[in-house]
Amino acid sequence: MYSPYSDMQYNLLSGIQYYTDQNFQKSLFRHAELQSQYTDVYFYMFSYSGDMGGNTEQRYPGSGNVTHTEEGNYIFDRNNPNYFSQADQLVHQRIVKIWTNFATYKNPTPSQDTLLQNIIWPKVSESNFQYVDIGENLQVLKDPKKKSIASGRTFSTLTA
To answer: What is the DSSP string of 95-154?
Structure first.
């Protein structure tokens, strides 16, 4: 699935994808499904790549543009947001609003909000795994497992 070579030493991208799947993606998906039986679970993929994220290192081609926990820089960055592009500032405002809503209401979108593009964030269930992609726009998507989970994107779970 990952590489025509049995040990992946000749295909670094396959090794990166395998490591991502085994150590991050699969356990996140399964945890969200199991936890959703007991409490509300909201799942997201952070796919926005901008300067505020701080990921300025050279990326390995095909491994994706967003690193693990990169969204943290959009929440906790101590720099003046005005130093960054309008798009970065908008993502910063959105993710801070999402996390503030979740901390306050146990729901990232308790009501429609133009800043959050009027989406209502769906809860995860085993039979209907929906999530929000946080990119330049917010998108409600379904079943991240149907896509290659070796996409190199960062997934996270908010659990009430």
So the answer is: HHHHHHHHHHHSSS-SS--GGGTT--PPPPBTTB-EEEEESSSEEEEE-TTTS-TTS--E
Give 13: exposed, middle or buried? Use CB within 10 Å, 0-12, 13-18, 19+. Answer: middle
Q: pTM score, two decimals?
A: 0.79
pLDDT tens per residue across span 16-49: 777 777 777 778 888 898 999 999 999 998 999 8
Phi, psi of 133 (to 5 degrees): -90, 120
Please give the Cα distance from 106 to 98 (Å, whole number). Answer: 10
pLDDT band at 156 (very low <50, low <70, confident <90, very high): low
What is the 8-class DSSP label of residue 5?
S
Q: Under DSSP, is residue 33 helix (H, G, I), strand (E, B) or coil?
A: helix
- Angle, CA 41 vertex, CA 22 and CA 102 arms, to 5°: 115
In the block, residue with structure tokens 């799942």: 43
Amino acid making up residue 136: E
